[in-house]
Specification:
Helix content is 0%, strand content 41%. By secondary structure, it is mainly beta. The protein has a single domain, classed as Jelly Rolls (Sandwich), CATH 2.60.120. The two termini are 25 Å apart.
Length: 213
């Protein structure tokens, strides 16, 4: 059972990444964010992911006043698995080429969201945050080379069929690099985030009210 806080909640509209209530695959337009949701798979023949272009779905019975959430289901990916993800912003780079560009969230503490899985879903879901260490365009990493590209990871260890709120502090995300055994994430240069479903997983994943805090 979800117990909703009856006290008034003050919402910072500039912190909202996506509350899903607009029922499209775009992020909420706020603080320069104009990104979109996407899915990616290892393209195993016969593997399925629905919808391939993410769009919010009605929450059965609603959740604390929220009527819509993003949902993705799938199975049958036997190589590296599958992903539900988003890019924070798009625009021209320094060469004028349009694509994913970094978003500055250095004044935020982290990311917060509500999530659950369906009855038959895997409960192994991983959150990944991509800063400049994750994209070759940022000039730090080399695809398939050294230094290797990477994302910052957190496992949603308590996820089950009930809605829970997850808080991912930037300060808790570190990764070993050749220069630093505890390289911190850089929230001033965020490119995107995603939820990863492992090889051969059957998944039914819901996410709602995604925001910075």
């Amino acid at each position: 059972m979800v117990v909703c806080d009856p006290s008034p909640v003050v919402i910072d509209p500039t912190a909202i990444i996506d509350d899903m209530e607009d029922r499209n695959g775009n992020l909420t337009l706020a603080s320069g964010r104009n990104g979109t949701w996407w899915t990616a798979t290892d393209e195993t023949p016969g593997g399925t992911i629905e919808p391939s272009q993410p769009i919010p779905e009605a929450i059965p019975g609603s959740r604390c006043g929220s009527e819509y959430a993003m949902r993705v289901t799938g199975q049958g990916f036997d190589d590296w698995g599958s992903i539900l993800g988003l890019n924070f912003a798009y625009g021209p780079d320094e060469d004028g080429v349009y694509g994913s560009v970094p978003h500055d969230a250095h004044f935020r503490q982290g990311i917060r969201f509500w999530a659950r899985v369906g009855d038959t879903s895997t409960r192994q879901v991983r959150f990944n945050l991509a800063d400049f260490h994750a994209v070759t365009e940022a000039g730090w990493c080399v695809e398939g080379g050294t230094p290797a590209c990477f994302t910052y990871e957190a496992t949603l260890s308590q996820i089950d069929t009930t809605w829970k709120q997850y808080t991912i502090p930037f300060a808790g995300l570190v990764h070993a690099t050749p220069e630093n055994p505890n390289e911190p994430a850089d929230p001033s240069l965020l490119y995107g985030m995603n939820f990863y479903f492992h090889t051969s997983a059957v998944f039914d994943f819901w996410i709602d009210d995604l925001e910075f805090y």
